[in-house]
Design goal:
heterodimer; A: 7-stranded mixed β-sheet; 0% helix; 50% strand; B: 3-stranded antiparallel β-sheet
């Protein structure tokens, strides 16, 4: 069974930084692209960032480019999202989501999701 | 940039009814790259349909997807109480490289 468990969310001041983690199990982590998708309170889904299994192809939404960094540790089966220069509009639940196709690039459907971790950016 | 418009915003229906949700793209997209997700309050999204009409693992056959070009639909043949949720369509793909979600359709009990 695929399990994705996010952690690291919390309350942070505008301009601050935070690191989110997503611990994965139940599949060959290094062979799947992984993504972060966020959902502001009461709003829809917004893709944030994704990277392939080897981490040599990385993509960001324009809204976070230059402020967020996605990475992964395939030896520990963990996906990360380093967030800096946080703004009020970054307040959201952040989900990690697994690519649905084995050993493929980014831009596939997302077949497994974690329960999310809440980030609140407020003074 | 591809924009997905879902309609209606909210639907009020009763268990047992049949429902069709719409997802319209601002430009033609390949049906290979269209997915549907279900999200219940306080839960993560769940993949229902990918490649416009392929059911994900474990999804009941009362859920079906269809469409091509700019118009896609998700049909639930007979609503069960657990189907009342928000449904999102998503375009994924390499031309252009991006993920786009529709704004969602809320299915509520009448």
């Amino acid at each position: 069974e695929v399990l994705l468990l996010e952690s690291g969310g919390g309350l942070v001041q505008p301009g601050g930084s935070l690191r989110l983690s997503c611990a994965a199990s139940g599949f060959t982590f290094s062979k799947y692209a992984m993504n972060w998708v966020r959902q502001a309170p009461g709003k829809g889904l917004e893709w944030v960032s994704g990277l392939v299994g080897s981490a040599d192809d990385i993509h960001y939404a324009d809204s976070v480019k230059g402020r967020f960094t996605i990475s992964r540790d395939n030896s520990q089966n963990i996906l990360y999202l380093d967030m800096s220069s946080l703004r009020a509009e970054d307040t959201a639940i952040y989900f990690c989501a697994k690519d649905g196709i084995f050993n493929n690039g980014v831009w596939d459907y997302l077949d497994s999701w974690g329960q999310g971790t809440l980030v609140i950016v407020s003074s | 940039e591809i924009v997905l418009a879902q309609s209606p915003g909210t639907l009020s229906l009763s268990p047992g009814e049949r429902v069709t949700l719409s997802c319209r793209a601002s430009q033609s997209v390949s049906s290979t790259y269209l997915a549907w997700y279900q999200q219940k309050p306080g839960q993560a999204p769940r993949l229902l349909i990918y490649a416009a009409s392929s059911r994900a693992t474990g999804i009941p056959d009362r859920f079906s997807g269809s469409g091509s070009g700019t118009d896609f639909t998700l049909t639930i043949s007979r609503l069960e109480p657990e189907d009342f949720a928000v449904y999102y369509c998503q375009h994924y793909g390499r031309s252009p490289e991006m993920y786009t979600f529709g704004q969602g359709t809320k299915l509520e009990i009448k």
